[in-house]
Amino acid sequence: MTALSHEKQIFEVEQTLTKLKSQNVFSTDEMNEMEDKLVSLKKAVYSNLKPWDRVAICRHPQRPHSIDYIQNCVEDFVEIFGDRTFQDDHAIIAGLGKINGEKFMIIAQEKGNTTESRLYRNFGMPHPEGYRKAMRCMRLAAKFDLPVVCLLDTPGAYPGLAAEERGQGWAIAQNLLEMAQLPTPIIVIVIGEGCSGGALGIGVGDCIGMLEHSYYSVISPEGCSSILWKDASKNATAAATLKMQAENLLDLNIIDTIIPEPLGGAHLNPKVAYQNVKAYILEQWNHLKLVEIESLLENRYQKFRKIGKFVEDETLTPCSTPQ
Questions:
Q1: Does residue 37 form part of some domain?
Q2: Does 273 map to a domain?
Q3: How many domains does the chain have?
Q4: Dihedral (C-alpha) 208, 209, 215, 218: value to the nearest 10 degrees?
Q5: Residue 6 falls within a domain, yes or no?
């Protein structure tokens, strides 16, 4: 297990306890006391995480990815390939499956977890054909009255020349328009990085849940610091300034629910994360399936109209109209 900077002390104590147990130096009561102190240490460390620490958790190499959630939450998954225009995009997985016997269309961004799979998945950065594949599957879901589940985990849409030549911006904009009007329930979950239009391209839904240590932002901390300060050492400052953690976004009505992770992050106990995500999907579906389509679409429209907050400064006076 890869130890993050804030986890090193915890891992050192765990290793020491493991050695002491094998040596039978201390009594059972003494070992229990030390284990209680370890639990207290974990709670103290994980309750005082800084935004940049949580970005590190979100990017942990052992953090579960979309394919892990599909394998552990979805039964009878059948993948759908290609956009019927250019080719298949491996950064987006789409297909039909069941969760507790209920049928869903699953659309997910996948980064890969080995060097080979990361290259195959283009590090989770979709091309235009990925967004077109996603929309093709969403239309299919609407045709057969199936709910859509979207799992967001991307550092952004692929910014290369080839993607721009094939209409990257158009593909994302088209998805925003059609998802806003799609006549079937859409459940969105941010499971890792939700960065820029790359995430938003499959992120319009009736309910948006977010894992506790994920982030959802218009730009990555690195991108923000390079633009504002031209200084990579400002990444931590950018992470705090962007207000991109789940509790910030809940306050701004950008997301609807914070899905809890096991103590320290999903990478430390993936089974708990799978259970919580699965429970969230089923809970939302049980609610959304009772809503008439006309009301569903109106609620979805109003949801995005109300996002964000602003404050009017009454000391400012409007510009006079030129004569």
A1: no
A2: yes
A3: 1
A4: 0
A5: no
At 209, which CATH number? 3.90.226.10
Domain membership of residue 261 (yes or no) is yes
Compute the distance between CA of residue 309 and CA of residue 251 in angstroms, rounded to an integer: 9
Q: Which residues, 6 or more positions from 65, have their beta carbon under 8 angstroms from its beta carbon?
A: 110, 111, 112, 113, 153, 191, 192
Q: What is the pLDDT of residues 10-23, one digit of tens each?
A: 888 888 888 888 88
Instruction: Give the separation between CA 233 and CA 230, rounded to whole angstroms.
Output: 9
Residues in contact with 175: Cβ distance below 8 Å, sequence separation at least 6, in sequence order: 131, 134, 135, 201, 202, 204
What is the residue range of 99's domain? 62-305
* Per-residue b or e along 244-266, where b marks 16 or more CB atoms closer than 10 Å to that residue's CB: bbbebbeeeebbbebbebbebbb
pLDDT tens per residue, range 193-242: 999 999 999 999 999 999 999 999 999 999 999 999 998 789 999 999 99
Q: What is the pTM of this model?
A: 0.90
